[in-house]
Amino acid sequence: MTLPPTGLAAHLRTRPRGLPTADDFEIAPVRLASPGPGEVVVRNLFLSLDPAMLMLIAGLPGLPMPIYEIGEPMYGAAVGEVVESHDPALPAGELVLHQLGWREYAVAPAAQFRPVERGPESPSIHLHSGLVAYTGLRLAPLRTGDTVYISSAAGAIGSLAGQIAKLLGAGRVIGSTGSAQKVGRLIDDLGYDAAFEYHDGPVAKLLRASAPDGIDVYFDNVGGSHLRAAIDVLNPHGRIVLCGALEHQLSDSADPRIDPFPLLAKRITVQGFTVGEHQDLAPEYRRLLRDWLTAGAIRPAETIVDGLRNAPQALLDLANGNRVGKTVVRL
Amino acid sequence: MTLPPTGLAAHLRTRPRGLPTADDFEIAPVRLASPGPGEVVVRNLFLSLDPAMLMLIAGLPGLPMPIYEIGEPMYGAAVGEVVESHDPALPAGELVLHQLGWREYAVAPAAQFRPVERGPESPSIHLHSGLVAYTGLRLAPLRTGDTVYISSAAGAIGSLAGQIAKLLGAGRVIGSTGSAQKVGRLIDDLGYDAAFEYHDGPVAKLLRASAPDGIDVYFDNVGGSHLRAAIDVLNPHGRIVLCGALEHQLSDSADPRIDPFPLLAKRITVQGFTVGEHQDLAPEYRRLLRDWLTAGAIRPAETIVDGLRNAPQALLDLANGNRVGKTVVRL
């Protein structure tokens, strides 16, 4: 195919204090570099949007990945198709996963792209967060019959974590989310046994009502009030995996602190993790996912937004909890 | 031997708010019961004093063991000698470990007593907290070359945890304690590579000065300011074991809370434990301790107080940090 001379790409123009606005982004055509030997050109099909990107935009420290620098290309997980190749090991036509998102075309050495399977599903399936959910549940570790609580349950990770927990043997899975409509989706579509709207009262009270016998595992995507509630309701030898801290990311005023004394008294385990450090689990997860998809045992939920220019607003919608499942930008 | 008609025993007369005073205890002679079939009489030699007893006295909830009830006999680890036996499996003369402390004589079924080895050391060695230290370090888990930080380092657990950490392969062991004199003991007698007096400044600053390359394991006996400092200074993939919460026990006003976000960002593991649930580690620890004692590789530190009537004051002294090593009452 003949490449266009330019493609849209995004960078930060200014760094917001807190949540960004459209004015903080520059989204404009950039000239595509000519690929050199060993390089390929990838036309991106889908860009992944993740709440953690808000921390990279705001420049908050503490994440194990670089923040977005002003004027520099923004990275992000994307899936695309090789349209021109100067490396015989990665021919044109391959579907690839990579980190050069926030642009319509990526030109880079072939080693930066990982070929992925073309299945009957949308290519965006490769951007879904099931491996994160699977990794957290394995690390906890989840045991057969456990009662599991998952916060941000309708989000990209939570919408798969509930289903995967059940498939891995959880006895009962409870989710929390931010609207009555999403509570319905959790129960009807996403495999949750119980769910609550966290604005409806103190989280600990709502959680206890859904889990009268306590919980054994807490998969934390939120922190703050949800983490404190989970510690309150956890049974002895309960296990917490820390995967995200949405409350901290979305509000300067939310109190993130916990009293660790119950961790000692109830002999609870807490572990923070990042999926990138557990890639040894990826092959088994991909096999399981293929089996579950084939059997119709798992239903990945997705929100699709069209066009890179709509990505900033979609990221804010995501942060505000207006989306169910994985949010992707179709490019 | 002919038994005396009575022996001293202690119970709580009133429940203190916060730390107890001598008036809260009744320590008086009680008539010894006649042992029935299957029972033995044990003359206690040493009673163990533990900071957690202050929580049992104050009636604070949350510990995985019963509080002391008003007027009821107080329990506690003790080592004693069988002086009369009505069970052939546990003859007179045996040295035994048991939980019927806070009294000069214990009369109970033989099954409540566990025979222990009579070695060249004082029988009080069986009350030392090395198994607690060993369990925490194994659970962390401690890895060869790790830098380890231990709070309340001159206490019953810390005074052995530092030595055991080194024997298990730690690269560098750092302790904190409450006086310059005890800092000296940590370095000179107790195997610590570095130590600081925690009143000398913000704990995180003092810890960082002792551990310029960060710490890998934190053995927490204190909580609060020490736990927050450790989280601050821990390296990625750092590990925390929660063993005690002295700051919480000794002060109503100390803020126990931590910000869990660094646990996520640095992929840190935290686990609360109690030694009673890890008795599978006891046989290997006892073998190691015997080897270490024989080789002169470990030096258990001990403070001895004479007489049950002095136990309450000794418990307060212990809480106030005026003791080094394991505090025992000689009966």
TrEMBL record, chains A, B:
The keyword Oxidoreductase applies. Gene3D superfamilies: Medium-chain alcohol dehydrogenases, catalytic domain, NAD(P)-binding Rossmann-like Domain. Pfam families: ADH_N_2 (PF16884), ADH_zinc_N (PF00107). CDD domains: PGDH. The keyword Ribosomal protein does not apply. Keywords: Oxidoreductase. Residues 21-329 form the Enoyl reductase (ER) domain. Transmembrane segments: none annotated. InterPro entries: ADH-like_C, ADH_N_2, ER, GroES-like_sf, MDR_fam, NAD(P)-bd_dom_sf. This is NADPH-dependent curcumin reductase CurA. It comes from Kribbella aluminosa.
